[in-house]
Structure formats: C-alpha cells, structure tokens
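Reminder: ligand-aware prediction takes two inputs, not one.
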Amino acid sequence: MAHPKRRQSKTRTRKRRTHDKAVAPTLAVCPNCGAFHIYHTVCPTCGYYRGKVAIVKEAAV
Ligand SMILES: [Zn+2]
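Here is what comes back for the chain with zinc ion:
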C-alpha cells in the first residue's frame, strides 16, 4: 500500500485542519406544530413531513 516516506509535521496537519469544523444544521419551523426540526427530515415533535403524517408518534412509555 502507498505509504508516506516522512511524517507530516504538526504544523502542516494543523494548517489543513483549520478548515475542519462542525456546522450547525439548518433548522426549519414545522408548519403543522411550529416546532423547529432539521430540514428534509420528519418533524420529531408531530411526525409530519411535507404536510402529511409520515410516522405516527406513539405515547411515551
Ligand atoms: Zn411538527
């Protein structure tokens, strides 16, 4: 397998990693219940997606 001859310096590794960071997901307001949910996902509060019931929430155990 291809293998680097020399170890990459800490500086070089850290320079590359300056561009790595977590981004906050885009949130949307559910038109059914008004709660925030992640875009393109079923609302975790009411189970609606695109105006229809996608998953039926069961009562809390
Ligand atoms: Zn909802």
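The longest helix spans residues 10-17. Helices lie at 10-17. We will return to this case in the review session.
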